[in-house]
Amino acid sequence: METKNIMIVGVGGQGSLLASKLLGSLFLTQGYDVKVSEVHGMSQRGGSVVTYVRYGDSVASPVIDEGQADSIVSFELLESARWLPYLKMGGQIVTNTQQIDPMPVVTGQAKYPSDLVAKMRAAGVKVDAMDCVALAREAGSVKAVNLVLLGRLSHYFDFPEEVWQEAIASCVPQKFLEMNRKAFALGRTEGTS
Fold it and tell me: Which of 55, 53, 54, 40 is nearest to 10 (CA)?
């Protein structure tokens, strides 16, 4: 199997590292070679954060170059657009619709771009966008956005749900397990009938 590439992007403190750990665990249990690279950026100050998850028969490097990402999982809308050059033709973005103002917007030097989902779709990008914060709240905590996103991402893989559930159980502390399972389920079923 050729190497597949997933980028997890967001703002510091949103839970992207747990999401990448969970994906890495899932792919390992399915017999793939996995490389995960965490690039923290300005995570401690709410800056942009990106994590690379690569899996396949043999993965040489943990880094994803422009135009190589099969999927981008984004915790924040502007981060989806920021990392768009890394998405390969025909790739998929799964994004939270939350908007967190970057410093230039906070200081009044810039405005948060409007209609980002529509603009990305108009450019021919496959975008699956939803309000993950509302679903995480419904599950019990806004900190569960990462599991809502992974639930949504699971639609784009052929793995059975029990494989995802095993990965969740192996990566999430027991006291938060039920809430995270609920968040995953809400993301997985959102928009389906």
Answer: 40
Comparing CA positions, the residue from 162, 155, 134, 166 lying closest to residue 71 is 155
Amino acid at 150: L
The structure tokens 């915790």 sit at: 75
Q: Phi and psi at residue 159, in whole multiples of 5°?
A: -70, 140
CA angle 134, 43, 47 (to 5 degrees): 75
CA–CA separation, 67 and 85 (whole Å): 6
Domain ranges of the chain: 4-132+153-172
Under DSSP, the state recorded for 112 is P
Under CATH, which number does the domain 4-132+153-172 receive?
A: 3.40.920.10
Q: pLDDT digit of tens for each residue in the chain (193 aa)?
A: 899 999 999 887 678 889 999 999 999 999 999 999 976 555 455 677 899 999 999 999 999 999 999 999 999 999 999 999 999 999 999 999 999 888 889 999 999 999 999 999 999 999 999 999 999 999 999 999 999 999 999 999 999 999 999 999 999 999 999 999 999 999 999 865 3
Phi/psi class of residue 115: alpha, beta or left (left: φ > 0; alpha: ψ in -120 to 50)?
left
Helix, strand or coil for residue 45? helix
Measuring CA to CA, how many Å separate 24 from each of 30, 95, 111?
A: 10, 19, 36
